[in-house]
Amino acid sequence: MTFREYTEKKNKEKNISSKPKAVVAMVDALKSVFNDYDLASRKKAWEALTSSKGKEQMNTLVRNPKSYISDSNFIKLVNK
Predict the structure, then answer these.
(1) Do 32 and 7 reside in the same domain of the chain?
(2) Which of 45, 60, 72, 77 is exposed most, by the fewest CB atoms within 10 A?
């Protein structure tokens, strides 16, 4: 096995193992936030984030977590 093949294999393994870690980290973050709000607020926020416009905004964050998205964009989703 060449060094290149070895490093590519390691990178694939790293990416595979990081996906479950990412899911667990996201769920932990949601649990932490959910603890701070009542059920009605959590449901309304979740509905806003999973709406078509909310998914669009969240996909922007998934693709580039450092991208700027104004909080007002998310607030508008909740106030509809």
Answers:
(1) yes
(2) 72
